[in-house]
Amino acid sequence: MAGWNRNFTDELRARLSVVDVVGRVVPLTKKGQNYWGCCPFHNEKTPSFSVNEEKGFYHCFGCGEHGDIISFTMKHNNMDFRAAIQELANMAGVKMPDYKPRDPNIVKREESLFDICEKAAQLYSEKLFTPDGAHALEYVRKRGFDDDMIKKYRIGYAPKNNVIANKFSTSKHLIDSGLCRRGDYGMYDFFRDKLMFPIFNARGNIVAFSGRSLDGSEPKYINTTDTDIFHKRKTVFGLNFARDAIHRANRSIVVEGQIDAIKMQCGGFPETVAPLGTALTEDHIALLCKSNRNIIFCFDGDGAGLKAAQRACSIVLPFLRDTSDVKFAFVTGGKDPDEILKTAGADAMKKIIDDALPLVDFLWQITNNNFLVGTPGGRAQAEKFLKKELDKITDSDLKSEFDKEYNKRKFNSWHRWKRNDSAVQIKLPDIDLVTKNTLVYIVNTYPELAEKYLDFLGTLGVDFGATAPELNLDAGASEKYIVSLKLQRHLAKLNATKKELTNRLLDGDEDAREKIKQIDEDIAKFNEKLEILISI
Fold it and tell me: Is the pLDDT of residue 164 over 70?
């Protein structure tokens, strides 16, 4: 609809998968690259309705209906454009802006910004191959960029002088583009003596730039400030080049910097992208999940890389589904992906990716590294941290499985099982298989009972990390089972001790007589407790 805010409709398309939107009302089955179902717009028995996740559209080969999430919602729900946008905004969990016919001046300004960015990219590309850009070209060559790569990614050079301000001095929207700023002596270029990487939107238009320092100064990268056509927190570098590859590889790889992303794309990992010199945001993850929910975060193995990985782990949790496969890989030895590819080759990089740690293991590693789980206080802090993180998972079934997995790990890793020694060494009978399976179920289902009876359970020699069978035991029945077993084991120990003392008495040890008398009283007392428990 003319006049509608294109940025908002683009945001809806980025946040909502066409498969998810259509799949709410049309049963879909994946075949090849597309999803197929029976068309909701005409009667058919053989599915001819195709949905393409990557391109964001549907097409019916029977009746010819074609469109995106907006047109589908309008037609299927018999809604006008505004109502469909409201419906999709609710689905995406975002607030719909008040509708206003778009100001023709704003539309014209955006078109002007696109034009300025395109012409600036052309100028930067030319400057890279001039004497002024010789040192930038030398740097690019040393980093392994050939002419084809330079051309594909439109890499350029911003000279030290105000080439943009001078070239486009008459442009009304030059300041708005973020390429220039106004000072006491007029306009000046924001990017000076920088290696320039154009930033593309989903439609392949250049909307901004990322400039890399060439003299070792910090920050290493600076980016165009947010404009009417560019929002850094919602833009993923390289995604326009990687979309098809992400679909083919059934995953995306996220690295830390633009050069790493380009070198990975050209070095055998075309599904690689990077955030723009900023920490990952929810919007970045939403964009990636729209293409594919399988993500490998590949960061440097230094402190900054580990911190970035922890943040990514926390941010990605709300986006997890039972089909998601999220992992974390680390490049160690003070290197980055570019250096690994250059010095060790694609096979070495592939091994790093293949050895990536699943999210469930990485979050467990974070928890154990950040808290002193060998102490009660540390375990309490770790419990709170895990709960806070797992509460971010919106898929209730998946959250339940994470809870079960971590309950099992906590029980087996945080508590050091030690058998109690006694003055009289008593050999009790081994736990039978039925009892073992029942205890494994109870421990993994009711961790509060495991904590309560920790000392007793630790004497049984049961592998509580084993697969838990499904049993019909509530918490009350489970506790009764543990207490009953505890009483039975204690009675067995008393009887075994009595037998040992009786043998001593027969050998002439009169001190054993008094001990046997006390044990008989204890046996009677515990038998009474067991009878009461069984009768409840």
Answer: yes
pLDDT at site 273: 95
Residue 431 CB contacts under 8 Å (≥ 6 apart), including other chains = 439, 460, 461, 462
Q: What is the sign, positive or negative, of the torsion defined by CA atoms of 306, 316, 354, 346?
A: negative
Pairwise CA distance, residues 247 & 33, whole Å = 8
What type of residue sits at position 434? V
**Integer Cα distance of 98 and 262 in angstroms:** 39
Quote the pLDDT of residue 351: 95
CB atoms closer than 10 angstroms to residue 204: 8
Question: Over pLDDT 70: what percentage of the chain?
Answer: 93
Closest CA to 315 of 303, 297, 290, 337: 297
Both structure tokens of 216: 């070792």
Would you say domain 234-365 falls under CATH 3.40.1360.10? Answer: yes
Among residues 314, 250, 243, 245, the alpha carbon closest in space to that of 281 is found at 314
| CA-wise closest residue to 480 among 444, 521, 438 | 438
Return the top range by mean pLDDT from 20-34, 121-135, 156-170, 443-457. 121-135
Sequence letter at residue 215? D
The model's pLDDT over 505-522, given as tens digits with 9 standing for 90+, comes to 787 888 888 888 888 888
The CATH fold assigned to 6-92 is: DNA Primase; Chain A (3.90.580)
Instruction: Tell me what percent of the residues of the chain surpass a pLDDT of 90.
Output: 36
Q: How does pLDDT run across 228-282, given as a tens digit for each residue? A: 999 988 899 999 899 888 878 889 999 988 889 999 999 999 999 999 866 788 9
pTM above 0.85, yes or no: no
Rounding to the nearest 10 degrees, give the CA dihedral for residues 77, 78, 79, 84.
30
Confidence at residue 2, expressed as pLDDT on a 0 to 100 scale = 45
| H or E stretch covering 503 | helix 475-506
Say whether domain 104-230 belongs to CATH 3.30.1130.10.
no
Fold match between domain 6-92 and domain 104-230 = no
Alpha-carbon gap, residue 346 to 144, rounded angstroms: 14
Residue 423 has pLDDT above 60, yes or no: no
User: End-to-end alpha-carbon separation of the chain, Å?
Assistant: 71
Which residue's structure tokens are 């040393």?
A: 142
What whole-number distance in Å separates Cα of residue 168 and Cα of residue 166? 6
- Classify residue 430 by its DSSP letter: P
Structure tokens at 407: 């309950």
Q: Torsion angle of alpha carbons 280, 286, 292, 295, nearest 10°?
A: 20
User: Are the CB atoms for 489 and 428 separated by under 8 Å?
Assistant: yes
Beta strands in 103-257 (DSSP E): 156-158, 180-183, 186-189, 194-200, 206-213, 221-223, 252-254
Residue 347 is encoded by which pair of tokens? 């096979």
Q: Which residues pair with 272 in a beta bridge?
A: 253
Residues 224/230, Cβ–Cβ less than 8 Å: yes
The residue count of the chain comes to 536
Domain ranges of the chain: 6-92, 104-230, 234-365, 433-535
